[in-house]
Amino acid sequence: VQLQASGGGLAQAGESLQLSCSASRRIDTINEVGWYRQAPGKQREMVATITNRGNVKRYADFVKGRFTISRDISENTVRLQMSTLQPEDTAVYYCNGKNGRLTYWGQGTQVTVSS
User: What are phi and psi of 37, to 5 degrees?
Assistant: First the structure.
C-alpha cells in the first residue's frame, strides 16, 4: 500500500490547515488509517486515526476539539482538518496505514505554525 500525504505548509497561531492522505488501494480495505507527527528532537506520536468502517476515531489528547479526521471513500482519501493551530503543532506529519501486522507510512508533510 502506498500512501501520499499532502497539504502541509505555514500557518499562524489560530489558523487552520487541512492534510490529505491518498492511498493506492481502497481505504475501506485498510484496517486503520491515521496521522502521526514528529517534531524535531521528539519521538513520533499518534495524532488521529480512523478505522476502515469510519466508525471509530481516536485522537491524541493534545488535539481533541481542534483536529478532525475524516475519510472520503469516493476520493480514497483520509483528511485531517486542523483548527486553532498552535506553535507546538509544528512537526512533520505522516500518514499511516495498518493492516494486521503490516504498517505503511507515507512521506511526511511539514506543518509549521508561527506565533
Answer: -140, 155
Residue 64 has pLDDT above 90, yes or no: no
With cell 493492516, the residue in question is 99
| 3-class state of residue 30 by DSSP | coil
Instruction: Give me the half-sphere count of Cα atoms (radius 13 Å) on the Cβ side of residue 24.
Output: 8
Those residues whose C-beta lies under 8 Å from the C-beta of residue 31, and which sit 6 or more positions away, are 51, 52, 98, 99, 100
Rounded to a whole number of angstroms, the CA Rg of the chain reads 13
Amino acid at 26: R
Task: Select from 101, 105, 97, 110 the least CA-distant residue to 26.
Answer: 97
Phi, psi (5° rounding) for residue 42?
-120, 165
Q: Residue 68 corresponds to which cell in the numbers above? A: 478532525
pLDDT in tens, 29-56: 999 999 999 999 999 999 999 999 988 9
